[in-house]
Design brief:
rod-shaped, alpha+beta, about 120 residues, 5 strands
């Protein structure tokens, strides 16, 4: 422990951190948080509690990023992107075919003598 001046009981640490005394004792016993045992009572420091809370927060943020970019999620994002592009391409190609057929209808017509006439001018549509 850093200094005997800053030692607090697990009861005080529990009030400060929101964790139970039992859980804080467990953290000390497993080495995840600094603390000492005097007699039958565990003690720690405010700094040790704050360090643990900070480490836990950083660890959970790192896990959140790793989970967000997990291989399964990346695979799903790639599949969804490919589907969107394929569907978009098919819709655009269908729309272009409809425009071409309308242009061909406009280019052909009937002359005044009743014969079919094909107009061979370039399309500006």
């Amino acid at each position: 422990m850093d200094s005997l001046k800053n030692i607090i009981s697990l009861n005080q640490a529990a009030k400060m951190s929101g964790y139970t005394q039992d859980y804080l004792g467990y953290l000390i016993r497993t080495g995840e948080m600094k603390g000492i045992k005097k007699g039958r009572t565990w003690f720690t420091t405010e700094e040790a509690v704050k360090d643990y809370i900070f480490k836990k927060k950083v660890r959970s943020e790192k896990l959140a990023v790793k989970e967000f970019l997990s291989p399964t999620r990346r695979k799903n994002i790639i599949i969804a992107t490919v589907i969107v592009f394929v569907v978009g391409f098919l819709l655009l190609s269908t729309m272009n075919k409809n425009k071409e057929s309308r242009v061909n209808e406009i280019r052909s017509g009937v002359a005044s003598d009743g014969e079919g006439v094909r107009i061979n001018s370039p399309s500006h549509y």
